[in-house]
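ok, trying the design again with the full structure, not the truncated one.
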């Protein structure tokens, strides 16, 4: 038998029951971190317990959409669930990407329940030095 000592865990469970599980029409939000690392913009999503084939990543124009579905584990007929706190259903997040990012070269890795997207900064957005040319001398205006 499992013992619970956190009084807020029961409140969280009841709130989840009242709001209902996530569905395709009402997905839950997945937590994320976003930061710049060198010439890449990195976005990391926490989606533990989701298999890689249950993750969809789409980019349309500058809108990045990540959807993941955590399905219930298959159980034998004689299994009686005593406690179920891990959320099931669909998790989704949409992010508007800046024009300065190269959406054609996004790399995705999934390890230990964390989906990491590396989005390169576009060449046109990187700082560059502008050289100043020497003038060709004095010019006259004729008219």
């Amino acid at each position: 038998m499992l013992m619970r000592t956190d009084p807020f865990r029961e409140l969280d469970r009841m709130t989840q029951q009242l709001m209902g599980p996530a569905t395709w029409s009402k997905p839950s939000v997945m937590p994320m971190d976003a930061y710049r690392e060198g010439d890449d913009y990195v976005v990391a999503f926490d989606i533990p317990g989701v298999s890689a084939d249950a993750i969809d990543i789409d980019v349309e124009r500058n809108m990045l959409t990540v959807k993941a579905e955590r399905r219930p584990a298959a159980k034998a007929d004689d299994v009686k669930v005593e406690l179920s706190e891990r959320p099931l259903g669909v998790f989704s997040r949409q992010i508007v990407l800046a024009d300065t990012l190269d959406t054609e070269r996004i790399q995705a890795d999934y390890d230990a329940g964390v989906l990491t997207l590396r989005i390169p900064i576009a060449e046109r957005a990187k700082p560059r030095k502008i050289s100043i040319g020497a003038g060709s001398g004095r010019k006259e205006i004729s008219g």
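Keeping the full-length input from now on. The helical segments are 7-19.
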